[in-house]
Amino acid sequence: TSWQASGPADLRAVCRGPLQPAVTLDCLLHAQLRGATLAGEKLKHPVEQMNGQLAYDPWMRRLTIAQLSGRVLGEPVSLTGEAVFTKPTRLALHVKGTLPLDALEGSLASEGPVSRLAGKADVDLSIRHEHTTRYEGRVELREASATLTAFPHPLEQVTGAVLLREGRIEAPELSLRVKEQPITLSATLDLQE
Prior knowledge:
By secondary structure, the chain is mostly beta strands. The chain has no helices and twelve strands. The chain has strands spanning 3-6, 9-16, 26-40, 43-57, 62-72, 75-84, 90-100, 114-129, 133-148, 155-165, 168-178, 181-190. Strand 5 and strand 6 form a beta hairpin. The radius of gyration is 20 Å and the shape is elongated. It starts with a strand and ends with a strand.
């Protein structure tokens, strides 16, 4: 995966350790982003106008994200938490904002139940990953659409909340259209490990 970052940032490195007989430095790296942009293979839309603080500890392989905010297609998004780049990578992140759903298409499994997403969603999600990925929080769909592999017609104008909790996904009331016919539904999906 390649990433391209551009834009202004204040960088500070604090290093300590002996310079002789061999250089063994323990450094902490800090960055204060000031309107930066991040693009990459996994991002369909770049994150622009990024502001916030990042800290990286190479010895611990830990990236700490504090008060990082930016815009995706002009909509606000924020991210806090940390990532530890060990095997397996550990994540503890919180994302909040408005995201274009088509940005997720690259992460959809080719043989999965959803083949296309469009529209927007207001998200307030905690994401944790160690051996498995867990999501908890709320996704508010706004005029979304999706194509399902097991259903012959696209779902259009999907609006409503999806609640993600440990082992459960709930949609208390979703409204949508199939072949221009209005549908209101509620659903609960219990996930088993």
